[in-house]
Design goal:
Radius of gyration: 19 Å
Largest sheet: 5 strands, parallel
CATH topology of the largest domain: Methyltransferase, Cobalt-precorrin-4 Transmethylase, Domain 2
Strand content: 15-25%
Strand order of the largest sheet: 3-2-4-1-5
Bound molecules: S-adenosyl-L-homocysteine
CATH architecture of the largest domain: 2-Layer Sandwich
CATH superfamily of the largest domain: Tetrapyrrole methylase, C-terminal domain
Distance between the termini: 19 Å
């Protein structure tokens, strides 16, 4: 049996009860970079853990190897947990793992998690929709293929919606410029939420025109989320709220053991 489990965006209290139960009975766990150490601490001591995450620009375990490892552990009769940051189906390759497991006729379940867009904005006092500002919300990848800009900018630049860019930090300038070029007001508010739902959460507010210039490389710590649209104005009104949130954890980058899938 394999459980594809969403661990939420950071704060361990955002784990669902179902996810918590699966962690308790896990025998083998394959986990990603964005799973906090507090959540890993909930695993049984005897559970075998394998780090299969990747940081931008560094080598990572190929997806096909992860798929194979999941199948192989399950075939040995282990209770396998595939633990992912946020929700497994939102920019998490959960779909690819599910396909591989189903093809191998392995019993599998998917346990949804709170995705970064929900967690970070809730803790920052930015509602994703609001009758006065946004009638829809779009989750977009900001990881643009090199030299290739395949996003549908004209529809992304429509007013009356909230855009949430995952993996967008290194393309912040390109994203803002493209949205302005395709018709969004340069004054459209933008929030950059750093290490959302953790004790280190920081929310930087600006506009499409002005925010990208305000940052110097290295100043911002990943993971970060970009939120663009009128709802971001509400952060000011609701700012007291952010300070009330009980964020409990931090990511400890680089402390993971090297992965050993075989
Ligand atoms: N499956 C995950 C997303 C994986 S893609 C989910 O549903 O949340 C990884 C991207 O998610 C990061 O580059 C960042 O943009 C965003 N992200 C994840 N956790 C975050 C956090 N705690 N704070 C800010 N952004 C986060």
């Amino acid at each position: 049996m394999v459980s594809l489990v969403g661990a939420g965006p950071g704060d361990p209290e955002l784990l669902t009860l179902k996810a918590y139960k699966r962690l308790q009975s896990a025998e083998v766990v394959l986990y990603d970079r964005l799973v906090s150490s507090e959540i890993l601490a909930m695993l049984p001591v005897q559970a075998a853990r394998f780090y299969v995450g990747k940081a931008r620009s560094s080598h990572s375990v190929p997806q096909s190897d992860i798929n194979q490892a999941l199948v192989a552990w399950a075939q040995q009769g282990k209770q396998v947990v595939r633990l992912k940051g946020g929700d497994p189906f939102i920019f998490g390759r959960g779909g690819e793992e599910l396909e591989a497991l189903v093809a191998a006729q392995i019993k599998v379940e998917v346990i949804p998690g709170i995705t970064a867009a929900s967690g970070c904005t809730a803790y920052a006092g930015i509602p994703l929709t609001h009758r006065d500002h946004a009638q829809s919300v779009r989750f977009v990848t900001g990881h643009l293929q090199q030299g290739e800009n395949t996003l549908d900018w004209p529809t992304l630049a429509q007013p009356g919606q909230t855009l949430v860019f995952y993996m967008g930090l290194s393309n912040l300038v390109t994203i803002c410029q493209a949205l302005i070029q395709h018709g969004l007001e340069p004054s459209t508010p933008l929030a950059l939420i750093e290490q959302g739902t953790t004790q280190q959460q920081k929310t930087h507010i600006g506009s499409l025109q002005q925010l990208p210039q305000a940052f110097h490389a290295g100043e911002i710590k990943p993971p970060t989320l970009l939120v663009i649209g009128g709802v971001v104005q509400l952060h000011e009104t609701l700012a007291w709220f952010e300070s009330q949130q009980g964020c409990a954890v931090g990511f400890d980058e680089g402390k993971h053991p090297t992965s050993a899938l075989e």
